[in-house]
Amino acid sequence: QPELSGDFGKLMEWADDLRRMDIRTNADTPSDARAARSFGAEGIGLCRTEHMFFDDGRIHVMREMILAEDEAGRRAALDRLLPMQRQDFTELFTIMHGLPVTIRLLDPPLHEFLPKSEEESREVATAMGMDPAILAQRLDALHEFNPMLGLRGCRLAIAYPEIAEMQARAIFQAAVDAAKATGAAVVPEIMVPLVGLRSEIDYVKGVIDRVASEVTGEAGIRIDYLVGTMIELPRAALQAHTIAEAAEFFSFGTNDLTQTTFGISRDDAARFMTVYQKKGIVEHDPFVSLDFDGVGELMEIAATRGRRTRPKMKMGICGEHGGDPTSIRFCENIGLDYVSCSPFRVPIARLAAAQATIAAKATRMGDA
Ligand code: PEP
Ligand code: MG
């Protein structure tokens, strides 16, 4: 494991004494979680669960689940995924040993799991023992013109609640397992992605709460938990006060929030952002460093309106901007509780958060 030692380790300790915000990590594998811990991460701010299904041993089960013709077929695949997810989450909870862990419900654009060519479709049909004509029909039915704006995030959990049910079950089973193994309290933070309506979080929270009481009842153990949401759509930011009636925490998904505020595809922006910068249209790429005027204003509105409903609401950021120093400064100024970034950016974030706290204090003193 990488370790921070010597003068750099000392510098980090000074930074830790000064900073107000916590530093968490985005991690979905045990090795990322361990690396982040050794760099000083104080929890997981985002576990992207869809990343747990891309490897060869699992993607075919995921595909079976998505391509299933009915709920019974989906449930059969989900039954096979449940023990895998239980193991995944137990490992993360154990590594984090009582530190907060935010697990996000499945948020893939569905096409990421589907075969991408005719040849791959033939292979999948053979592997699944499915008639190629039926597979073609299913693929047709699942085709989306705009997958990034389609059946993603909480929409998936609402269309197929059994997926959220499986993940919630795995999270609570893992919390019980890890609490027993480590003796440390595990308080899962379950995050619902791509929420735009209060009724969406209400619906998904209903599923999570039901599963929580089933699992903890069976285990005879109490597990405290939080259900929160990403703020990654302009509507969610504007309606933060109503969404906060149901959500117990907010995490700013600034990758999608930048995409949806600008109406620019996050996957294609890099191409013309270079031209935009060269021609002076923008000073910097807003996908790298926060756009304070548009995206930042929405964040500030969301933080203020969310706190109007829930004054002590926990808020953080888990988009890529969480590891960018000038964006961290902005997060300090709007009073976020933590930033979450990729493991190798944790030391930079610790330093930047300390600088942000000092700068904010200096500004307040200057104002006084
Ligand atoms: C985001 O949108 O900022 C986010 C953290 O989620 P993802 O990048 O997985 O869409
Ligand atoms: Mg997102």
From TrEMBL:
Residue sites binding substrate per the record: 48, 104, 232, 253-256
Domain PEP-utilising enzyme C-terminal: 5-356
Coiled-coil segments: none
Binding site for Mg(2+): 232, 256
Active site: 318
Protein family per UniProt: Belongs to the PEP-utilizing enzyme family.
Function: Catalyzes the reversible phosphorylation of pyruvate and phosphate.
Name of the protein: Pyruvate, phosphate dikinase
Organism of this sequence: Allorhizobium borbori
Upper taxonomic lineage: Bacteria, Pseudomonadati, Pseudomonadota, Alphaproteobacteria, Hyphomicrobiales
Whole-protein residues included: 527 to 894 of 894
